[in-house]
Amino acid sequence: MTASSPRPATYEDVLAAPDNMVAEVVDGDLHLQPRPRRRHVRAASKLGAFLIGAFEDGFNGPGGWVILHEPELHLGPRPDIVVPDLAGWREGNYPGDVDDDDAFFRERPDWVCEHLSDSTARFDRMKKLPLYARQGVPHVWLADPRERTVVVYRLDGERYTLLGTWGNEDEDVRLEPFDAVPIPPSALWGRRLHRKL
Q: Nearest to residue 120, comparing CAs of 42, 22, 49, 25?
């Protein structure tokens, strides 16, 4: 849902949004989405937990990243305000949280993942994906826990290149930029899947 107004939306509009909605500002328009449903939340949580273990804490993986669930990003001079389901910064690019304890980040992440749902899929594809390209986010994943697919993009210049779409429930996958460690299907879809023997 987009709330149209004669003036560009601001952070004050985000703060005034109802508690049961996720408020984002893209291209000066306020977008209100309902809070994610259980399947969406579980899929994002499982993927975040797996990536934090392997790529932040270094358990069975290389470490070197900071992965956050639903960080609020203020990107660009206007700014555009978005809340991806997951975002990650390479350790050297992470802005830190010791001296600056704001509720949001102004520094663009190195990776974002949006989990698509009926209410967010069009907005994520049509508005947020171009925004991430404009802001120079190197990798974007669009994961659909309903369809059990994940689409991976890499920024080449000003546009994203499609690296592929994965949806095999029987195999671990290696997805940029986290291709150093295979990701099991249960981490992508939020539940254990029965594998063929």
A: 22
pTM for the model stands at 0.90
Kindly give the pairing relationship between strand 86-90 and strand 29-34.
unpaired
Level-2 CATH architecture, domain 36-189: Alpha-Beta Complex (3.90)
For residues 32 and 20, the answer to whether their CB atoms sit within 8 Å is: no
pLDDT per residue as tens digits for the range 2-38: 555 568 999 999 999 999 999 999 999 999 988 877 8
DSSP codes of every residue in 39-100? HHHHHHHHHHHHHIIIIIS-TTS---EEEEES--EEETTTTEEE--SEEEEEGGG---SSS-
* Tokens describing residue 121: 């899929």
Distance set, CA 73 to CA 21, 91, 184 (Å): 16, 17, 28
**Which helix (H) or strand (E) segment is 151 a member of?**
strand 149-156
